[in-house]
Design a protein that fits this description.
Layout lengths: L2 E3 L10 H6 L9 H12 L7 H13 L6 H8 L10 H23 L8 E3 L8 H12 L2 H13 L6 H9 L11 H21 L1 H12 L1
Antiparallel strand pairs: 1-2
Helix pairs in contact: 2-5, 3-5, 3-6, 6-8, 8-9
Length: 216
């Protein structure tokens, strides 16, 4: 199994104290919860693994639409509800998913950096490709709401979505740009972390309008 990592600890903006101690957002999963969720995901081969799931949650949460975990639970597991060994396991897994969602959402609401879950290789280097894939999968569920930022990314190399799309496009068969250099990847991942709360709050006004519209 690949080793786990978040952003590169050697990156200039890596905040160890914030990473270890968190903020006033809902607690992140503890090691035991995390490992149980990771193993459960790995046992459903047609579903998402933890890095894709983390990106998927971020893509859904960052947009202005009132996405909920419940409506996308089958999608996470390849199109159908997963099979649980017992009612207790079902509750445990669903609680872990909800807690992870709430931690991401609370962190971004606070405009704090959210450090994505990224798998690393044996040299502790991350690619971020699967996380970006997950984010785009989440974004794509409400693509119309994202069109402004997607259009902006086509014309502005420093747009909020550029780091995510750069990592996503790298692994597509039609990619003609080649592999990202290691130094550039570090910058891309660091910028991605900085941009996530900005993306979330970019949609504050649209989120409020949609919320008000739903009440009428």
């Amino acid at each position: 199994m690949s080793k786990k990592n978040t952003t590169d600890p050697n990156a200039p903006d890596f905040d160890l104290d914030r990473f270890l101690n968190g903020t006033d957002a809902p607690d992140q999963l503890d090691n035991k919860q995390f490992e149980k969720l990771e193993i459960f995901l790995e046992n459903h081969q047609k579903g998402m693994h933890m890095e894709i799931l983390d990106g998927f949650f971020c893509g859904l949460i960052c947009g202005p639409d009132a996405a909920t975990l419940e409506e996308f639970l089958p999608y996470i597991f390849g199109g159908k509800e997963p099979e649980y060994a017992s009612p207790e396991q079902a509750e445990e897994i669903k609680n872990a998913l909800n807690q992870h969602w709430a931690h991401i959402e609370g962190t971004l609401i606070n405009a704090d950096p959210y450090y994505p879950f990224l798998y690393s290789d044996n040299d502790f280097k991350v690619s971020g490709n699967d996380w970006a894939l997950g984010f785009v999968l989440g974004l794509d569920k409400y693509r119309e709401s994202w069109q402004e930022l997607l259009d902006q990314a086509q014309h502005d190399a420093e747009s909020l979505l550029t780091p995510i799309l750069t990592l996503y496009l790298e692994k597509l068969p039609e990619n003609t740009e080649g592999q990202i250099h290691a130094e550039d990847r570090e910058v891309i991942v660091t910028t991605l972390v900085e941009n996530l709360p900005k993306i979330y709050h970019h949609f504050d006004e649209a989120r409020e309008k949609k919320s008000q519209g739903a009440l009428h």
